[in-house]
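pinned: reference chain
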Amino acid sequence: MVYNFVCVIFTFGGSDNVDILLEEIGEYKDYFEFCDKCNSSRPIGSHHCRRCKKCILKMDHHCVWITNCVGLCNQKYFIQFLVYMELMCIFNLLLIVGNIMDLLDKNDNLDSYIFKRDALYFIFINFLISVIFFLFVCIILIGQICSIIKGNSKIDELKKIKFKRITVKENLKIIFGNSFAQILLPVKNKMYKYNDELKFETIIDMINNKHLEITTP
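pinned: its structure tokens
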């Protein structure tokens, strides 16, 4: 979980402010647009983050937890971090239930009653915080999974940008990689080598694989 947290902080969400020349774009010019804030070309479906001061491809949101944007390059780490947080909450809730059962089994005398009462107050507060945190993270996780399945981020939906429909399997490959191990483990996506930075060649590969096509209204 700590490794995922570090990765999601220090991996750019999908910064594509690379030096793209018009002659390099060539036949792919329909897949690029100009950002007047960055004063640079960017792939369609990118969004400018005012806090990061960069354009992020498939940007979902700017997360205050990680002080970074969640986008194409680090969404996998972000989702895995959320899953590990959920598992930690479940483990904590199981420990709480065990503590309650242990307290209820003890014989009651005055000292143990006072201790039991104070302990139950603490356990109840811990239980309440864990449940609230579990539900909060669960809502975020469901939103992330839904956006991957649909192939559109929350910002895409707000701006009414729709990528061409591809299979759920392909959408998962774009974010997690093309193997089951890459989905489960916090390892780099080997399908598109965008883990350190998003390069022009990677963008072209995504276009050629029809992973960056937007439907026209």
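why pinned: The chain has eight helices and six strands. The chain has a mean pLDDT of 79.
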